[in-house]
Amino acid sequence: MTIKALNNFIHDRKQARGLPLTILNTTVLGIDADYFFLQQLSPPGKKEPLLHALGGLPFSLKSCIETFLQGLRAAGIKPVFVFKGIQLYKNERPFARPDIRQQKRTDAWEAYDKAKGETAVNIFNEIEPIPVSEVSRYAMKLLNENGVDYMVAPYNSWAQLVYLLKHEKKFIDAIYGPTEVLLYDVERVITSIDFAGGGLLWINKRNLLAELGGLGSEQLLDLAVLCGLEFSSPFPLIDQPHLTGTMAVRSARDLIRNFVSGYGAVMAYEENPLVKESNYVDTYRRAYCAIKYHVVYTDKGSLEPMVTENAPNDIHEFITQRLPPELYFYLTKGIVGPEILNALTSGKLIEVVPLDGGESLEYRRFLSDLESMRSQSLSLLTQPLNRFYQAKRVHIVYWYDRNNEHEIPHRLTPTTYETVNSWNVHSNVLDPKLAELNQKEVNLEFAVVSLDDEKFAASTITPKTPSHLLETSKEILANTYWRFLQLRSFVTPQHTLTPWGKALVTALTASRTEDLFAEPLIVALELIRFKALTAKAYTPSYTGLPIRGTDVEKAHILLIARVASLLPINHMPIGFSGPLSRNLLSFNSFVAKYSQIARTLIETTVFSLLANSDADRLAEDNAGWAKLGVSLPFTSGPNSGLGIAMKTYLDELCGKPEPTDSSEREKMKEELKKLFAHALDVVGDIERGFRLWDTVVEAVKVAAKEGAMTNAEATAFTDADAWVQQRR
Asked: Is there a smaller number of Cβ atoms within 10 Å at the N or the C end of the chain?
């Protein structure tokens, strides 16, 4: 993020200076990941306007990262990416700031429903990009595959970058990032790189201070706080409709000149109704101290404020409550994400409105049902921590019930860890089974299928032996997956398969190895259990439902399309073009939310295993820890693109005179290629969607046979399967 008003001032006053890119040859460049992704994915021509209508990740994300890395290599520059960590303390109520994004989404869908496609796209294009936190795990995986170093800062990334720059070991030589970098003892920051033109843009702090009328470095910090930061609101007398951009900066500058400092200006207006009502004096103090005494992760593995001299003793009042150093280490390596840590340190978990609008009662009920998974995650996280965190209350606040807080209980008896700590399987048991199943690495599919062997399952009941702990990433991953599967009731505490586990094994055994269906199958079965994957239209008023055929046929199409939408559509690295479906976007909200919660549960399972000394934590090196983080599943959820393609194919086929005729299906293939012109292989993707459908139907049959589903629930799938066989 950048200080928007100051950024506008810099742009208006042409403060950015150009230099040839060759000046960075043989250097190490520290890159603020949030700034980089916003800069790469937001500008006209790069922004994908329909991302808010599809869900998922930008189609151009992979290409964007790899093209940038290629440019750096060609210029002889070594990158180090730094991602943002835990949110700083916010002294404000949840949803206190208005969120105009959902209103714009609603306006865009209304335009789309009226066949005003271009208007809809333009409105979608006005919406801010998706949060960088939603792409960070996938980005880390790509960086790891490309051999690029990265870390997650304990809190804000720009302070961590300054630490790396100013350290006596000079971990980096320059910073590519936002203007916040200049709030520290840094003379310049690179704000843009142009590989095609062979140049870069940078801002010189001295020149900027001169342009601001000779302000000092401390006064620049005052000005930034008055103008508003990512984690604090602007000074109320500046936060006015008529004071935007450069005018807001000038107003802040004049206040500082008149009252010597920002704090002096704030105190001078302490009794002003706007200042008093907003409690801005406290906001200012917290924001100022949060910058000046910002906490960074040191090369010794400890946390220290940027300025230790005269640092206050109550840093936790404006940063957050301190966590154990070991937990920060796992955060820096991407093993544990910041989302669950935000909830623990703040005591609040904020559930924002999903992309579709979240109007369905089914989705709201689904969120309530997910609280049990969140309880498990918090229990795993807090059990090895001190009593303060074990007893700390965490509440969830929903966008549709923002005045009420719902506690997420996590002091469970027995603890979640105690229910799964019988999984301590070593390589001497693991390796022969991997060889038998012809598996090269441990993944979710191996973890499930291996337990179909009752003799092997019995051998996995392995209490911890302090003299013989788990050591390798392979051992840690396998035991993490088994513990996760037990927590999600695919496996019993006796390490045998439950009815749902048997259904999952049957489906995976029936699928092609190269299809890698373990994740989408787990999501499918979980959503079936949560009563979310059904043939019912949650919000009938939403656009994009099947419109042809009988009501029964429409229900079949919707169910099959929802299953297909568990897979991504392979697409060119450009914005989507084709029909949209707000109804399938609504289902994508279920998929995305479950994937997010499942990922958190797996991360906290890893942490619990490590923090309870079930593994030798000194056995891995830095590369091994990073590899562990990017090996975890549920990196990102799919978009609704393939579901839309499947719905379009079956719906259009229903309108043909002979929908089961092979010639009609061949014609539809060609029509699909035209409708989804930027898809790489829409026909192949739909065929893959049908293969996933086959495996889900097989799982449903087993679940019904084992008594895990009612016959009525299973019939919805088997009837749809019988109907679709001649339409594939």
From this structure: C
Q: Alpha helices, DSSP H only, in 392-513?
A: 416-420, 427-436, 444-449, 454-459, 473-487, 499-510
How far apart are the C-alpha atoms of 495 and 437, rounded to whole Å?
Answer: 19
What would the mean pLDDT of 100-113 be, rounded to a whole number?
Answer: 94
Amino acid at 27: T
Instruction: Specify whether the CB–CB gap between 352 and 399 falls below 8 A.
Output: yes
What is the C-alpha separation between 685 and 599, in angstroms, rounded? 25
Query: How many of the other CB atoms lie within 10 Å of CB of 384?
Result: 20
**Which run of H or of E encompasses 274?**
helix 273-277
The DSSP call for residue 692 is H
What lies within 8 Å, CB to CB, of 673 at 6+ separation is 679, 682, 683
In whole angstroms, give the CA distance from residue 532 to residue 553: 19
**DSSP H/E element including 10:** helix 4-12
Q: How far apart are CA 385 and CA 228, in angstroms?
A: 35
- Average pLDDT of the chain to the nearest whole number: 93
Q: Are 447 and 504 in contact (CB under 8 A)?
A: no
Burial grade of 392 (CB within 10 A; 0-12, 13-18, 19 or more)? middle
DSSP letters, 89-146, are P--S-TT-S---HHHHHHHHHHHHHTT-HHHHHHHHHHSPPPPGGGTHHHHHHHHHHT
The number of CA neighbours under 13 Å toward the Cβ of 583 is 27
| 494 phi and psi angles, rounded to 5 deg | -90, 10
Give the integer Cα–Cα distance in Å for 469 and 263. 55
Question: Does residue 469 contact residue 614 with C-beta atoms inside 8 Å?
Answer: yes
Q: Is 636 helix (H, G, I), strand (E, B) or coil?
A: coil
- Measured between alpha carbons, how far is 587 from 581 in angstroms, rounded to an integer? 10
Per-residue pLDDT tens for 540-598?
A: 889 999 999 999 999 999 999 999 999 999 999 999 999 999 999 999 999 999 999 99
In sequence order, the 6+-apart residues with CB closer than 8 A to the CB of 435 are none
Contacts of 43 by beta carbon, 8 Å cutoff, 6+ apart: none
